[in-house]
Amino acid sequence: MSSEPGPGLPFLPGYAFRDPMKTSFHRSQTLGYRNGFAFSRLPTVGAGGERLHVNQLSQAELDDLSNARPVLTYGPAKPAPPSGFVPAHVAFDKKILKFDAYFQEDVPLSQQEHYRIRQVGIYYYLEDDSMTVIEPFVDNAGFRQGTLLRRHRVPKNDQGEHYHWKDLNRGMNITMYGRTYRIVDCDRFTQVFLESQGIELNPPEEMVFDPYIEMRRTPMRKYITPSDFDQFKQFLTYDKQVLRFYAIWDDTNNMFGEKRSCIIHYYLADDTVEVREVYKQNDGKDRFPVLIRRQRLPKTLVEKTKNFPSCVMEISDHEVLEWYTAKDFAVGKSTTLLGRTFFIYDCDEFTRNFYRDKFGITDFQPVEMEKKPPEEVPQVIPPYNGFGMLEDSLQNCFSLIPKPPRKDIAKMLENDKKVLRYQVALESPNPEDRKRRFILSYFLSDNMISIYEPPVRNSGIIGGKYLRKTRVAKPGSTTENATYYEPSDLIIGSTIEVFGHRFVITDADEYVLNYMESNAERFPAATLQSLRDHIRPQQVGKEAANSDIPALGTSRQELDDLIVQVREELKLHKHLNIDNVRKELLQCDQDGSGIVDKGTFLAALESTCVPTNALLVNKLIDLCSCGEDKINYRDFLRALPS
């Protein structure tokens, strides 16, 4: 029975028939949640659970709504985000197709192989469609291996196409840059990938191997005759056990031969022998590690019936009848090893115990080897050749790189710039040489002598340095007992010989007399007295001449000659400043008369380092004197070198 009224009856009270089966009269829910978001919807069921047809859309309305785009209040709706896109370099990163292949290579210049099979791996990179060919390394292959084709896109033909993974399959040939590769198989990942893309793979093939490599890997058959002797047992028993013998190798019969001390090592583990030479400090020999390397030494060889040259130096086993063993070595006996005879004179304690236990030998009395001391070769010093100083030449006999002789530093510091000057004349049969006068300077710091000849105008002799600074030996002096001239040998009137030339001492400076008088204990009385007898009268005569005879009376020619000599003498003093001397003397002459006091004059010369104790300078000062304690310094200034 329906609860709805008939179509012709009004919906009025009394005209409605209530369905007693309806028990629920609440409104249906219009709010809901989907994917966590709240949304509203129109009710589809009315009160009592009746289905409402007013809120249902027709098919035409649904089609219109599906094609229509809603317009928001503030403009059109934002476009929907695109579907997920993954680039190829991300999707195929580290995804590589690997194919096993090989190629055949001709070998024209070989008698053992005519061709070569080289196995390679072809790698295809899906991220950028590049390929590479890599050959695995084979030991002792003899040719270059590794990367045969670098990674890049490999051209397929002349039309600009490149190889793609769709072009690769098992059981096919692929040609890249003129070389044909045969693909025989691929790995599991490659197989799954290609099958997923709808490519039907060919069945795999067997890999072809290089016949020459396989021949080398095949072990050669060795025919070994079984032996009763167990070498491995000998090695385990006597490992690190070595017999040591002390021997002498007498090689004096050969040219430049000698007796050499050696040590013979016998290794019990494999019956090998080693000989080492014993070196001493500063023996002049090269330190070779071993004299005879460790090896088995033959004792008796097979007699060869044919004279045919051998192409190898090694001795094979079938050429030896007997090898050296431990019983062939004994103290006090000689043994010949590879043509060298060694005399064994002693052994160590381990060797004695081994022979005592193994062979029952108890006589190990060492042999005393008399070592003759080397003959001392006397050092013969060759005669002096006259070049250079004797001490310098003698150093060449003591060292390959000569060292300068030691100098007396204390004496050099004490007598620095102390020079004794003498006037000497040349003793010669020529009349021209008898008039020549020289200045001999004796340097107290190093006992050296120099000779200078002042130039004389219109004499025909240049003059200048006659002998450089050197030590002069006395006549009769030898290289074993060399004696040199000393200040005590320089006496007025004595003759000295300088390298074959004889000089007579005629005069000396007053400084020489003053120095010897202040150090009278060092010089003989005869030398000191000769200087006093020669210089004292001159000093008295000068004083008398200064008081009685003025300098104006002196011969002008004599003064000019002396000025020339003093000028050459002062040129030798490199440290002398001429401008300072002139300036100092001009300051002393305040009135400009050209005459100053002698004390002031000498003080000015000493302050400017003018050698007033020199013989010629002192003589010029005497000639420039005018009156008592007065000096005409203008004549002295003429003697200063420009």
UniProtKB/TrEMBL annotation:
<dbReference type="InterPro" id="IPR002048">
    <property type="entry name" value="EF_hand_dom"/>
</dbReference>
<dbReference type="Pfam" id="PF06565">
    <property type="entry name" value="DM10_dom"/>
</dbReference>
<keyword id="KW-0206">Cytoskeleton</keyword>
<dbReference type="GO" id="GO:0000281">
    <property type="term" value="P:mitotic cytokinesis"/>
</dbReference>
<dbReference type="InterPro" id="IPR011992">
    <property type="entry name" value="EF-hand-dom_pair"/>
</dbReference>
<dbReference type="GO" id="GO:0005509">
    <property type="term" value="F:calcium ion binding"/>
</dbReference>
<keyword id="KW-0677">Repeat</keyword>
<keyword id="KW-0963">Cytoplasm</keyword>
<dbReference type="GO" id="GO:0072686">
    <property type="term" value="C:mitotic spindle"/>
</dbReference>
<dbReference type="GO" id="GO:0043014">
    <property type="term" value="F:alpha-tubulin binding"/>
</dbReference>
<dbReference type="GO" id="GO:0060285">
    <property type="term" value="P:cilium-dependent cell motility"/>
</dbReference>
<keyword id="KW-0282">Flagellum</keyword>
<keyword id="KW-0966">Cell projection</keyword>
<keyword id="KW-0969">Cilium</keyword>
<dbReference type="GO" id="GO:0007052">
    <property type="term" value="P:mitotic spindle organization"/>
</dbReference>
<protein>
    <submittedName>
        <fullName>EF-hand domain (C-terminal) containing 1</fullName>
    </submittedName>
</protein>
<dbReference type="GO" id="GO:0005930">
    <property type="term" value="C:axoneme"/>
</dbReference>
<dbReference type="InterPro" id="IPR006602">
    <property type="entry name" value="DM10_dom"/>
</dbReference>
<dbReference type="InterPro" id="IPR040193">
    <property type="entry name" value="EFHC1/EFHC2/EFHB"/>
</dbReference>
